[in-house]
């Protein structure tokens, strides 16, 4: 559905991406992890067609992404940027309706036939009762739900998310990712999500792409990617790895310096349950 | 099931504001120093509209050649400034953006002054000379502001870049005034303060196409303008050609501003006060907000001009004085709010 080959990108001669390739299939959730400055956000910008790579190509729906017009692209691919929704005086329903833009004609009065999609997006994201509330009076977590509902109304085949849970509390983190996962499974959506939180990434993603300095360091299912040696190589720390007591996926716990018996010894700690 | 909120807001508000505008214009034409009754005034208008010879040539001259062009011009200038204000505010995502505060008006004023008093390019542009030069200089001023302030403007940046641009173009304008003759100097001074006095039908005709053209473009792009309030990146993700849309909207708003400045000088704060008030009435959706603000701007300026004529009769105040008396305190209040909320 979305595929990128050999992406290179430099800003002022500093290479941010070095020959990165990635692909996301329908119904799959791919997590992109890596330390700050490893090029994750740049990857999102290139995959969304917002910027062009210096070298390499992004393919969306089988065509190079630059072949699509803005509208055609937006009808296939939605993006949730890191900043989330700004504080606008529009109502929830109005903002969700804005997601219909790529499917509407040029005229200002277009869009009265899009009610159904908007309604579905509202009810699926649990916002039907909040439709008349103003977005600038919502909390950060609620706003993020509106942003997702807007993306749902857009009816894309691919969804790109740039750290959608960074500023949210644990309840909202879980709700947001649950909603996206449900959407991905029900409609065969292809999802690529940049996550800082390795545990959430491990929990929700089918496949992880671990980046270091603009290139792929490791890729595969969470168990294969989240290993002590890889994390040490990429992040330069030696965390404790354990398994999620319920789902069994790998979970990463920080090991504070003064309490880590292996510190300095170079041996990562891994607990197998 | 409600189909479209914006239509529900648009229709009653445009309806009632159109009615109010008609009333305001009727009142403005009827009130004035020459002792004319309402009936005399409307008799003149009726005779002109039906093409029959005027019953009273003096009344005809006053109403048809002095008051009516002035009132209609005031309405058009108010409409243009309010429309431009809505667009600037939407695009820059800042409720304090206004052609006057951004310095676009002072750019237009310099262009217009050069055209009026140096007569550059008259053979080429004829009756459009002043608006064309105003537009050229206003665009330069806007480029400066955007170059200084960047895309999504924080309030401080917006005001500071506006100040810098105004200072520069203001100085150039002062220079033009300084090198003109004493008689011209007084005319320019009065014109800079903003006035629709002594305007004739050809002034009205000179700005009408710019106003109508600009408004049509802006309203047709009102839905993309809504998406811009979510941020330029989000607008792009929704399929908007961000650069092209932004450029077209900015040019249209600048064009409307320039047309207004070309005939009436710099009248401040209309583009600030009116969109803000109308957002409360008609909501933030630009499909309703633009027409409603345009009508309200027209009413506001007709009323301000009437006040400017009447307050110190028989002397006249420049209309810019009246709008600033209303607008500046309003601006201060908004500024305070925007700083408190980290706008």
From TrEMBL, chain A:
Q: Name one GO molecular function term.
A: ATP hydrolysis activity
Q: Does the keyword Iron apply?
A: no
Tagged with keyword Glycoprotein: no
**Family annotation (PROSITE patterns):** ABC_TRANSPORTER_1, ABC_TRANSPORTER_2
Q: Tell me the first and last residues of the signal peptide.
A: none
Under Pfam families, the record lists: ABC_tran
In Swiss-Prot or TrEMBL terms, this protein is called Iron complex transport system ATP-binding protein
Q: Which organism is it from?
A: Melghirimyces profundicolus
Automatic annotation (TrEMBL), chain B:
Cellular location(s): Cell membrane
Q: Tell me yes or no: is Protease among this UniProt entry's keywords.
A: no
Report the principal subcellular site: membrane
Q: Where are the transmembrane segments?
A: 6-29, 71-88, 100-125, 132-152, 158-180, 201-221, 248-276, 288-311, 317-335
How is the protein disposed in the membrane? Multi-pass membrane protein
Q: CDD domains, from UniProt?
A: TM_ABC_iron-siderophores_like
Which GO MF terms does the UniProt record name?
transmembrane transporter activity
Keyword annotations of the record: Cell membrane, Membrane, Transmembrane, Transmembrane helix, Transport
Q: Name one GO biological process term.
A: siderophore-iron import into cell
Task: Please give the InterPro entries that the UniProt record associates with this protein.
Answer: ABC_BtuC-like (IPR037294), ABC_transptr_permease_BtuC (IPR000522)
GO CC annotations, alphabetized? plasma membrane
Family designation: Belongs to the binding-protein-dependent transport system permease family. FecCD subfamily.
User: Any idea what this protein is called?
Assistant: Iron complex transport system permease protein
Tell me the organism: Melghirimyces profundicolus
Q: Which lineage ranks, top first, belong to the organism behind this chain?
A: Bacteria, Bacillati, Bacillota, Bacilli, Bacillales
